[in-house]
Amino acid sequence: MNQDLDAYWMPFTANRQFKKAPRLLARAEGMHFYTPEGRPVLDAIAGLWCVNAGHARPKIVQAIQQQAAELDYAPPFQMGHPKAFELAERLVELTPAGMNKVFFTNSGSESVETALKMAIAYHRVRGEGQRTRLIGRERGYHGVNFGGISVGGMVANRKMFGTLLAGVDHIRHTHDPARNAFTVGQPAHGAEFADDLERLIALHDASTIAAVIVEPVAGSTGVILPPKGYLQRLREICDKHGILLIFDEVITGFGRTGQPFGAQTFGVTPDLMTVAKGITNGAVPMGAVFVKQEVHDAFMNGPEHLIEFFHGYTYSAHPLACAAALGTLDTYADEGLLTRAAQLEGYFAEAVHSLKGAPNVIDIRNIGLVAGIELAPLAGQPAKRAFDVFLDCWERGVLIRTTGDTIALSPPLIIERAQIDQIVGCIGDALKRLA
Ligand SMILES: Cc1ncc(COP(=O)(O)O)c(C=O)c1O
After folding, report:
1. Do the domain assignments include residue 3?
2. Computed from CA positions of residues 233, 278, 286, 408, in that sequence, does the dihedral angle turn out positive or negative?
3. Does residue 359 sit within a domain?
């Protein structure tokens, strides 16, 4: 393919390296991408944790095509369109009990900003305007906007961008390979890491803290699971001190861990929950924040003709996104995809853990249809070994993802067992070849 690659400044990409040896995807269907030359590549990462139902699913494609012809756009401020309301009603049928309000955004990053602003504003409308502090977690990823990188804890995403939001602090992360390496499913050790929140409360005083935000399973940092009892303990501490708990479910949402949401897999209900990605199967940008009834109701005060929450996006509840999301929910329901990861979890776990003992593998972590395979870094060249495995698998027809020296797998939920074997076989071969 003879195409000029110069003008496009690519996101989260080693641009110069990529443009010397580009990896282009021209078409996709089901479990596969196809290169411009027509070479199939098995998608082991659901695009970017988003194509949960597989690619180019007919109900989603048709919904988008029809919607584009019927209503291309409708302003979301002081106006509405029927599919936005229909979608909201459908979505809250899936959420944990009591989380029955939805605010629409266009991405995970926007969902996070929205949730953080809601949390601060919630305390203010209740007369606790001094609760402005936000608590995130080390190694957390909450998108790339200023609020998200402030509560986030991935250093490369933060260090270039100045002082970030004021009044943010972080609890410690839960990665503890000394005690938990090669655990199948949730690790046994580390519930006590939640007590780090008590340390920050003792430092700042609960009366200054609006919310705590965590990913139920930290994805972008390399798949870190919540130790057993950890999320329950965070919930208890938040309740004790009147602090809102936000779950960032941008990757755990829509079936990834075996239930519609991580909140249900882990049995802990937050006050706000951010989603994106799988809400439209990745087909049209969309995000959302799910909100507990009480949090929403706190805003519904004052004169009825006044706007209650001064926030929203030109493309909130965009008609194409709503149509895509409805087609997505139909596809998930028709094929039982939101619980399929629970059925495949045992097979998937056994397959990925079979890589224990492969060259340079120092830990393997899994839940539902997510796995992290951590490699020992090459001396003086962090992230290089995993990236070499990525390149090797790409050449051999499997698309994986790496973050640091961890390989992160999150295949579409339609994956078949033979395809799990293909992915794991390809990684195992690459590890041997590169050893
Ligand atoms: C937990 C989490 N939050 C937020 C985001 C940001 O989403 P987006 O890239 O759609 O802005 C991501 C993206 O991977 C994520 O994993």
Report:
1. no
2. positive
3. yes
Q: Is the CB of 196 under 6 A from ligand 1?
A: no
Whether 268 is in a domain gets the answer yes
Question: What distance in angstroms lies between residue 251's CA and the mean position of ligand 1's atoms?
Answer: 7
Predicted confidence at residue 1, as pLDDT, reads 53
**362 and 220 inside one domain:** no
CATH assignment at residue 51: 3.90.1150.10
Q: Tens of pLDDT along 375-429? A: 999 999 999 999 999 999 999 999 999 999 999 999 999 999 999 999 999 999 9
User: Within 10 Å of residue 212's Cβ, how many Cβ atoms?
Assistant: 31
For ligand 1, atom 13, which residue shows the shortest CA distance?
143
Cα–Cα dist 42/32, whole Å: 5
Which conformational region is residue 77 in: left (phi greater than 0), alpha (psi within -120 to 50 degrees), or beta? Answer: beta
Most informative mutation of 13, 50, 51, 109 for ligand 1 (most atoms within 8 A of CB)? 109
In angstroms, rounded to a whole number, what is the distance separating the alpha carbons of residues 414 and 412? 5
| 249 CA: nearest ligand 1 atom | 1
Domain boundary among 297, 314, 335: 335
Kindly give the number of the ligand 1 atom that is closest to the alpha carbon of 276. 10
Domain total of the chain: 2
Shared-domain flag, residues 401 and 266:
no
Kindly list the distances between the CA atom of residue 66 and the CA atoms of 61, 69, 71, 299, in Å, as whole numbers in the listed order: 9, 5, 9, 36
Boundary-marking domain end, from 319, 335, 351: 335
With 0.90 as the threshold, say if the pTM is over it.
yes
Q: State the closest ligand 1 atom to the C-alpha of 143, by its place in the atom list counted from 1.
A: 6
Q: Is 278 in the pocket of ligand 1 (CB under 6 A)?
A: no
282-308 as b/e, with b when 16 or more CB fall inside 10 Å? bbbbbbbbbbbeebbebbeeeeeeeee
CB atoms within 10 A of CB 93: 10
Residue 366 to residues 42, 220, 296, 363, Cα–Cα distance (Å): 20, 14, 35, 10
Residue 188 lies in a domain: yes
